[in-house]
What does this fold into?
Amino acid sequence: MGMAPADQECVILTEDVPAFVRCDGPLYVKGPVWRIEQTVAR
It folds into this structure.
């Protein structure tokens, strides 16, 4: 397609056990930037 993928930033803690924290980036080509992060049900 001649296009480069958009930048993404993912944060993963690697202390005792690797854990997903947050990811910022588009979910599809030319899509909006989404922030995906964990949440706690209350």
User: Anything to note?
Assistant: The beta strands are 9-13, 19-26, 33-37. The longest strand covers residues 19-26.
